[in-house]
Design a protein that fits this description.
By secondary structure, this protein is α/β, with parallel strands linked by helices. It has ten helices and nine strands. The chain has helices spanning about 15-25, 70-85, 105-115, 135-145, 160-165, 170-185, 200-215, 230-240, 245-260, 285-300; strands spanning about 25-30, 90-95, 120-125, 150-155, 185-195, 220-225, 225, 265-270, 280. The protein has a seven-stranded parallel sheet. The chain is globular, with a radius of gyration of 19 Å.
């Protein structure tokens, strides 16, 4: 079986393939911490943040957060260039919600990167409820100079689960924000988290089905990582709850990939927890093994991303 969005044995639409298609060569994300917070942390909507999120706001791999953004960028860029010396860069504002600030601050935050020759695009991780009209206008203006990629944390389309993990907004609110952002011609990547407490395999498939109907450009799939410095981690240490095995995760992930449109970029299929922060499951630490497991299982099943996609998307 051939898959048109791959130039190797992987049967899903990888970010490396997509950046080569868009920019002529690989572009890699350079992690940045802009010192943001979230509305479900500061009391605007709630306290404590999403229960699976650590005190680092999902930016655990960023090593230079106390420093100026350009200092962070240059240091992390050099780390990336050791592995991919000829790559372009995508400055990635990763920690917390990076549109949760006045519009002018967002403009100032982006400005130093928009004129850099090696910058292919800029990416901002944020929440769907942090995209007010003035923020979207700033992003639209920046998008005229460099492509702006938004990464929106959905995790699940199940509102019951979302309430359980303290997300503090509904799936309908998420979908509404996606449509508003697409009106500004912004690229959107959705974060999906498999294995949340209480979710069934059908719940996880339903999330993929709901995402497949939206006008999004990318998806990141993660297995739930139970981190020590998180509300969920403290719950797990008190009363452990069941987690997906590697085999269960791969099976669900393949079924999710099969119903996604093949043109959607799958930016991640596994996360990168810091070993010292992780309580469970430990199998996620061997990322190469997980990737090979996924690749080989897709080949064994003679399947690929989009194999069961029904062709219906809401524009």
């Amino acid at each position: 079986m051939s898959f048109p969005y791959s130039d190797d044995e992987r049967r899903w639409h990888t970010l490396s393939f997509e950046t080569r298609r868009l920019f002529g060569r690989r572009a890699v994300k350079v992690m940045l911490d802009a010192g943001m917070t979230c509305p479900n942390r500061d009391g605007t909507k709630g306290y404590g943040g999403c229960t699976f999120c650590s005190a680092g706001g999902a930016g655990e791999t960023n090593r230079f957060s106390p420093e100026d953004l350009l200092v962070q960028y240059e240091k992390n860029k050099e780390i990336m260039r050791k592995k991919w010396p000829d790559s372009l860069t995508i400055p990635y504002f990763q920690s917390f919600s990076n549109t949760y600030a006045p519009a002018e601050k967002i403009r100032e935050m982006l400005e130093p990167f928009l004129g850099k020759e090696e910058v292919a695009a800029v990416a901002l991780a944020t929440r769907a409820d942090c995209l007010q009209d003035d923020i979207l206008e700033v992003l639209a203006q920046a998008n005229q100079r460099r492509p702006v990629w938004l990464e929106l944390g959905l995790q699940t389309s199940n509102d019951r689960t979302a309430e359980r993990v303290n997300r503090c907004h509904t799936f309908q609110e998420f979908a509404d924000s996606v449509y508003r952002a697409k009106e500004k011609e912004l690229r959107i990547c959705v974060h999906v988290l498999n294995g949340l407490p209480g979710e069934t395999g059908e719940d996880m498939l339903k999330t993929a089905e709901d995402v497949a109907k939206l006008p999004v450009d990318g998806v990141k799939f993660h297995m739930l990582n139970v981190l020590k410095d998180s509300i969920l981690g403290r719950e797990y240490q008190t009363v452990p709850f069941p987690l997906l095995s590697e085999e269960e995760y791969i099976d669900i992930l393949i079924r999710q990939l099969e119903i996604l449109p093949p043109e959607i970029t799958v930016e991640r299929v596994s996360g990168d927890p810091m070993p010292g922060d992780l309580l469970a499951p430990h199998w996620v630490l061997n990322k190469k093994k997980v990737l090979n497991h996924l690749k080989n299982e897709l080949i064994r099943r003679d399947s690929c991303q989009g194999r069961k996609y029904n062709g219906k998307r809401n524009e």
